Amino acid sequence: MEWRVGGPVAEQLRPVARPRLYEVIVEQLCAHIAEHEMTPGDRLPAERELAAQLGVSRASLSQALVALEVQGVVSVRHGDGAVLVRQPIEERAVKALREHADRLPEVIEAREALEVKLAGLAAERRTDAEMAAIDSALATMESEIAAGDRGVVGDEQFHEAITVAAHSSLLAKLMHEISGLIRETRIESLSQAERPRASLEGHRRIATAIRDRDSAGASRAMADHIRMVSDVALLREGG
After folding, report:
1. How far apart are CA 53 and CA 91, in angstroms?
2. In the chain, helix, strand, coil percent, each to 5?
3. Which of 68, 133, 211, 216 registers the highest number of CB atoms within 10 A of its CB?
4. pLDDT in tens, 39-89
């Protein structure tokens, strides 16, 4: 059998997939945790120091830490840095990271389908008490951001308050089913520079429309908000 260019051997060759930068850094972080025999509760070095040790930029390191936070490996606390929650297994951590990146577009699609409708319904059906809960969530997020945090708790409370105000038990059940996946995208988005304040402004526009009982306006504001928070670094690099 003649082996020629374009023949059987060439047909079997495939481009070798290059690991993405954040995957390499996740591997390095897992190795660092293992080499230093870190246990849950131990604090990782400050980002500036850790980035220097690994020879990467702080921005790239921060993205990798967020990826591990999404997996529940570390907890990134304002003022405390990253604290180990559980010891990672390198191969599983990278596999979970790739799966997370692959499912992000579908999670975003689901959020658009569900939350745009929920916002419109909340504008039609909300009670005064439910409007107060929405405003309270806004205040919580604003306080978190003012303290230098990302606003994850207030963000979560805001979207939950809208779900309650929509008075749709089936849509609420569907939201509950994907709540864990939504939390992943929430952490991913709010960890980006300037994103917490931009997200808070989007929430205010949604709340104003709901307060005015403007169903169409609330839906548009939520759609704009979901599109904005869906611009995450993991998808930009993955693309």
Report:
1. 22
2. 70, 5, 25
3. 68
4. 999 999 888 888 888 888 887 788 788 888 888 889 887 666 789 998 887
Please answer whether residues 60 and 53 qualify as being in contact, where contact means their C-beta atoms are separated by less than 8 angstroms: no
Considering only the C-alpha atoms of the chain, give the largest distance between any 2 of them, rounded to a whole number of Å: 80
For each of the domains in the chain, give its residue range(s) and CATH number, in order of start: 21-88 (1.10.10.10), 104-237 (1.20.120.530)
Residue 11, both tokens = 């047909």
DSSP 56: -
Whether 92 contacts 203, CB under 8 Å: no
| Per-residue CA distances from 228 to 32, 190, 222 (Å) | 34, 11, 10
Entry pTM: 0.73
Determine the residue type at 77. Answer: R
114 to 23, 76, 164: CA distances (angstroms):
31, 29, 13
CA distance 133 to 126: 10
Tens digits of residue pLDDT in 163-209? 999 999 999 999 999 988 888 888 878 888 889 999 999 999 999 99
DSSP code per residue over 71-120: TTSEEEETTTEEEE-S---HHHHHHHHHHHHHHHHHHHHHHHHHHHHHHH
Burial letters 92-111, b for 16+ CB under 10 A, else e: ebbebbeebbeebeebbebb
- Could you report the per-residue pLDDT of 198-217, keeping only the tens digit for each? 999 999 999 999 999 999 99
Handedness of CA 64, 70, 71, 77 (dihedral sign): positive
